[in-house]
Design a protein that fits this description.
The chain has 103 residues and is mostly helical. The protein has a domain at 46-82. It contains 4 helices and no strands. It has helices spanning 3-17, 47-60, 64-81, 87-102. It is elongated, with a radius of gyration of 22 Å. It starts with a helix and ends with a helix. It comes from Tomitella fengzijianii. This is CopG family transcriptional regulator. Residues 1-31 are annotated as: Disordered.
């Protein structure tokens, strides 16, 4: 076994032995809403961009991945409705698409 295999085996064993210190109270409903989601998307951002995203998520009271998913899907829906921003943003997007195709 290699060093990493030993570390992983040790961590796995420790996780199997871990016990929850207190039972979940009976009046608490546990749910896992993301179990139905089957795909993970990775996005590369700079450290400064990541910090801005974390700050926005904290302000919204949401986990970062939830905030990013909401923003991305909201943008897709806006684009589908043809309401992807103000006139200036829409014109800039149109110009980018036109000049990208012409290149």
């Amino acid at each position: 076994m290699t060093g990493i295999d030993e570390v992983l085996a040790g961590e796995g064993s420790a996780a199997e032995r871990h016990e929850v210190p207190e039972p979940i109270p009976g009046d608490v409903t546990v749910h896992r809403p993301n179990l139905s989601r089957s795909s993970v998307v990775s996005v590369r951002v700079s450290a400064a961009e990541l910090e801005r995203l974390h700050t926005a998520a904290e302000r919204a009271g949401l986990p970062l991945s939830t905030l990013m998913r909401v923003w991305a899907l909201d943008r897709v829906e806006s684009e589908d409705r043809g309401a992807g921003g103000d006139v200036g943003e829409r014109l800039a997007r149109l110009e980018r698409e036109v000049f990208k195709r012409g290149a």
